[in-house]
Specification:
Strand content: 5-15%
Radius of gyration: 31 Å
Structural class: alpha+beta
Distance between the termini: 55 Å
């Protein structure tokens, strides 16, 4: 891989070296800047002009060195100011601390490794497990992670779109030093601990429309089986070593239990279903509804009822009352659970069945009496579509009944008759959700294309690729962070995380680590306010 930025030379700290003063760092910074300016004025070698490509590549390392010196100068000056106002003895929260001499630490910043010194406050007469703190790190919001917050936020943002390994290799192109794949995964879990609080506290969008549209859909992602988890938990020292990378695959295949060959129609992947929400508003302009406005995404592997509780909360936040006269439309794929929770949380909403799901079922049903791909099949489906869009659903059901009655009762036709009966029953119970003619006249939605696309883009593209096997709680963190990124709230979210961490550090004098090995549990069910629970 060609790196735009060369690796940072990480030197082992010299314990005998005294911390540099601010004046020394200031002189070093000015010297580096002057050398860079001198090089830019005349970078020639042997009076031969260099190309722009050569010049640009040659100054990258110099610019990053200047950045490292500037960061070291900033930390040194902050430490001087903070140490000057820190008393030798400090009592806070019933705990007593004594100021000690500064100790050194190396942190990997955006520009490379920086070594700095900071005062340590030792807790006196502390019980077993007591600890001190570093005033500099608490006031500046530095965590105990070896990497700076900005770098961790960027690699996690990459990990919401790319696999953890690909996120690492992508960041290596631009940065001199990046976290390992395991660190990126643990940092993602750490950021994932703040997603629920962010969604709850995020403000409502400005300049919203007057019609609220909420679309629901589901998507399954492959989950790791117990056998796979047992192999993952096996200590590395107990695993047999392959003689070369070439033989590692053979060795791993020999350890796995032999799987049965799947049948052609077997598409099982040990999936766990996530519920996806797409919410936006429409604004009335004359006789039309313009939009979508302020589109918002949310996904969770918690039960479907949780998704409706979140949608209810967001609707109230946007100023739409599910029990009032506000126009709210819910679009689903006909799932009975979604219909039940729609009645519970949005009893006055316009509940619409996605017309594309109905058309797809008509195409499957047409193979019971027409050859697949024939002109007659296409003509029949087009006729039924015209009836659907005209709001004549009963005529479609009557046509299906007539087609079913024409099929004689024989073993050959039994499956066809059963397929047609299921479609008839499906349509009969959902006639009230298929008033497409009225919806078209009112310029409302009749399809769920927005949520179908969101499911593929947010969940499928990141979490349902070949070879992926998830643990559901870890999958939840990735999916919710991806929703925040797609919503355009990433910068506000990372500022929210940074402020929460710094506030906690200042409050209880604890050293916080963003990286987490254990994922946050799935969100708990939230009942509809002032309403009995639905079974």
């Amino acid at each position: 891989m060609v790196r735009i930025c060369p690796p940072s030379p990480f030197e082992k700290p010299d314990d005998t070296k005294a911390p540099p003063s601010a004046d020394e760092l200031d002189r070093r910074l000015m010297s580096q800047a002057e050398k860079l300016a001198s090089y830019a004025r005349d970078p020639r070698a042997d009076d031969d002009e260099i190309t722009f490509k050569q010049f640009e590549q040659s100054i990258i390392r110099r610019v990053f060195d200047i950045g490292c010196t500037a960061v070291a100068l900033f930390l040194t000056c902050c430490e001087t100011r903070i140490r000057a106002r820190t008393p030798r003895w400090l009592v806070q929260g019933g705990r007593s601390f004594e100021r000690k001499s500064p100790t050194d630490r190396s942190i990997m910043t955006w520009f490379g490794s920086v070594r700095y010194w900071r005062t340590y406050m030792l807790e006196r007469d502390a019980p077993k497990g007591g600890h001190g703190f570093f005033p500099l790190e608490h006031e500046l919001g530095l965590t105990s992670d070896r990497f700076g917050f900005n770098m961790l936020a960027v690699v996690v943002r990459l990990a919401t779109t790319l696999s953890f390994a690909t996120a690492k290799s992508t960041a290596e192109i631009f940065l001199p030093e990046v976290p390992a794949t395991e660190v990126i995964e643990q940092t993602t879990l750490g950021f994932g601990r703040f997603t629920s609080k962010w969604f709850e506290s995020a403000p409502a969008p400005d300049d919203d429309g007057d019609v609220l549209v909420i679309l629901f859909d589901g998507k399954g992602t492959p989950q790791a089986t117990e056998e796979e988890l047992e192999l993952r938990r096996q200590p590395w020292k107990d695993r047999p070593r392959a003689s070369s990378p070439r033989h590692r695959g053979r060795q791993n295949r020999g350890q796995r239990p032999k799987k049965k060959r799947p049948k052609p129609d077997d598409k099982s992947k040990n999936a766990r279903m996530a519920t996806m929400i797409v919410m936006y508003t429409l604004r009335t302009v004359g006789t039309e509804l313009h939009g979508p406005i302020n589109k918002w995404h949310y996904a969770s592997f918690a039960p479907k009822k949780h998704a409706f509780a979140i949608a209810f909360r967001e609707a109230k936040k946007r100023g739409f009352d599910p029990d009032g006269d506000d126009v709210i439309q819910i679009v689903t794929d006909g799932d009975p659970d979604l219909a039940r929770y729609t009645k519970l949380f949005f009893p006055k909403a316009i509940h619409t069945l996605d017309v594309i799901h109905v058309v797809e079922r008509l195409w499957k049903a047409s193979t019971c009496f027409y050859e697949a791909g024939s002109e007659a099949q296409e003509n029949w489906v087009e006729e039924q579509k015209d009836l659907l869009y005209a709001g004549r659903i009963e005529e479609v059901i009557t046509e299906l009944r007539a087609r079913r009655n024409k099929l004689c009762r024989s073993n050959k036709n039994e499956k066809r008759r059963e397929r047609l009966k299921k479609l008839i029953d499906y349509l009969k119970t959902r006639v009230h959700m298929m008033n497409y003619a009225e919806l078209v006249d009112e310029d409302l939605e009749i399809g769920s294309g927005a949520v179908e696309g969101a499911v593929k883009h947010i969940i499928g593209k990141r979490c349902d690729q070949g070879g992926m096997r998830w643990i559901v709680e870890r999958n939840e963190a990735v999916v919710q962070l991806r929703c925040i990124e797609v919503n355009g709230d990433w910068e506000r979210f990372t500022s929210f995380v940074h402020d929460r961490i710094r506030g906690r550090q200042l409050e209880d004098l604890s050293r916080i680590r963003i990286q987490q090995k254990v994922a946050e549990p799935l969100p708990k069910l939230v009942n509809r306010p002032k309403c009995k629970d639905a079974a």
